[in-house]
Design goal:
alpha/beta; Rossmann fold; Elongation Factor Tu (Ef-tu), domain 3; 6-stranded parallel sheet; 32% helix; FMN adenylyltransferase activity; nucleotide-binding; Riboflavin_kinase_dom_sf
């Protein structure tokens, strides 16, 4: 899978491509099912499969800090897409110029000039262009003029429930990790590089790895039982996601205490899978009270992990250790 950027001619697409376009936030089961169907179409036409997305996501550009918390960063998104047999991801910068581009100009420039799309699959509620003026009907009209077949992908449901990034975001906000994992097809995770922290955890006998999240807002907050992927190694632990109000924190951070692990991780990229929520993040009356609670959290996490083999989302088709 190759990541493409910029507005240019790509000679690899002279014969055309099969494509889809959207945010693909979280790359949930609905997205994965769409991409599987599109890959079958690409194989049938013997054309490369291109997924088109935007950075920042359009709502992040327009709403700034009021935009819904994204489920996945670009890095996290690409990590999942690598397993979906995508040939290319075309990442378009969403800026002032693009925001003012009409739907027709966007389609003619990016879809038919840059990418030479021959088959386009989109959701039935897909909108694009300045003021969201473009819809599926316009795409079909333009597609017929450009020798491009445009088709609509129906909503993907589990037990008659439509799977969407919004549904997953709501589940995470309510601490319902089981539903989130079911909709995603895997436990929810975040990744980040380990930063030098203030050393408080080590002073308390509870060393932590502090991960930079680079997020304006978080899709979940609190204290969780986690499994952490460090290169090819996997370690269990307990994590706090939030601003650490007891010690005067202000920035969102993910800090993880790993069980039976003692080596420096500074600069390393960690992927943290959230398995079970223990409690909300709260401001304690004293640091001693916070420390006592952390030790309680560690015991609660180990108790959960002791039963993990039977509690693993009660989903026999799901195997975290295979991820």
């Amino acid at each position: 899978m190759k990541l493409l950027r910029g507005f240019q001619h790509f000679s690899a697409f002279d014969k055309g491509v099969v494509a889809t376009i959207g945010n693909f936030d979280g790359v949930h089961l609905g997205h994965q099912n769409l991409l599987k169907a599109l890959k079958d179409k690409a194989n049938h036409l013997n054309l490369p499969l291109v997924l088109i997305l935007f950075e920042p996501q359009p709502r992040e550009y327009f709403q700034q800090e009021k935009a819904p918390a994204r489920l996945s960063s670009l890095r996290e998104k690409l990590e999942v897409l690598r397993s979906c047999q995508i040939d290319y991801v075309y990442c378009i910068k969403f800026d002032k110029v693009l925001a003012q581009t009409s739907a027709t100009d966007f389609a003619l420039s990016y879809l038919f000039s840059v990418l030479n799309v021959k088959h386009l699959l989109v959701g039935e509620d897909f909108r694009f262009g300045k003021n969201r003026e473009g819809d599926v009907s316009l795409l079909m009209k333009l597609g017929s003029e450009q020798a491009c077949d445009v088709s609509i992908y129906s909503n993907f449901c589990i037990n008659e429930d439509r799977i969407s990034s919004t549904r997953i975001r709501m589940a995470l906000q309510h601490g319902d990790l089981c539903s989130a994992a079911e909709f995603l097809g895997r436990p929810y995770s975040m990744c980040g590089r380990v930063l030098h922290g203030d050393g408080r955890g080590r002073q308390w006998g509870i060393p932590t790895a502090n991960l930079a999240l680079h997020r304006t807002s978080l899709p979940l907050q609190g204290v969780f039982v986690v499994q952490v992927k460090i290169a090819s190694q996997k370690v269990y632990g307990v994590a706090n996601v939030g601003s650490r109000p007891t010690v005067g924190g202000s920035k969102n951070i993910l800090e993880v205490h790993l069980f039976d692990f003692d080596r420096s991780l500074y600069g390393e990229l960690l992927q943290v899978f959230f398995l079970h929520k223990l409690r909300d993040e709260v401001k304690f009356t004293s640091v001693d009270a916070l420390i006592a609670q952390i030790y309680n959290d560690i015991e609660a996490a180990k108790e959960f992990l002791g039963n993990y083999e039977t509690l693993q989302y009660q989903n026999p088709g799901f195997d975290l250790n295979a991820s």
